[in-house]
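Supplementary material to the annual report.
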Amino acid sequence: MNNIVNPVTLVDQSFYYIIGFSFVFLFAITLVMIFFVIRYRRSKNKIPSDIRGNLLLETVWIALPTFIALSMFVSGWRAYTGLRNVPEGALEIRVEAQSFSWLFYYPNEKETENEIVVPVNTPIKLNITSLDVIHSLYVPAFRIKVDAVNGIQTYAWFLPEKEGEFNFQCTEYCGTGHSEMNGVIRVVSKEEYEEWVNKEDEW
Ligand SMILES: [Cu+2]
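Predicted assembly:
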């Protein structure tokens, strides 16, 4: 189980990679601009110099941004494929969105509403659909955001590596009860999960 790369890591790496470059360029370009404005101001350069092509400079400023943009794409692609490729042996939970709550069905047909209980360190696959309008499952902690559409089966997966509670919510405005369409993913130990999932429904 330890050789699975958590997509959360890949998404975050891609995010910091892109925002890192954005900040570097923001400051670099601003500094150069300020320097040029002062250094080449009109009072010091009455007659502007006539600069023509510079092969080296042009090659560099075409090649370098192309390389940087492509590397951003690669980091994003790795995060995307990480989110889409479900590892073998994932625990599958059926998810049905309805106005206005989330229903979850476990392999043994145990059913919960607005709460998922999952074992720690186990990949979890959510098979998502909607019973009516379009909803969207958003789990910030696991970098998941997938639309639930009536008549279409979609999916998402995540790897909970820590026990605890993580919020999810509907993030597609679906009607008057939209704001109540939220819940909690409870990550528990494997033993606790087994005991919970095999317990008769108390409702
Ligand atoms: Cu909704």
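The chain has two domains: 7-84, 91-197.
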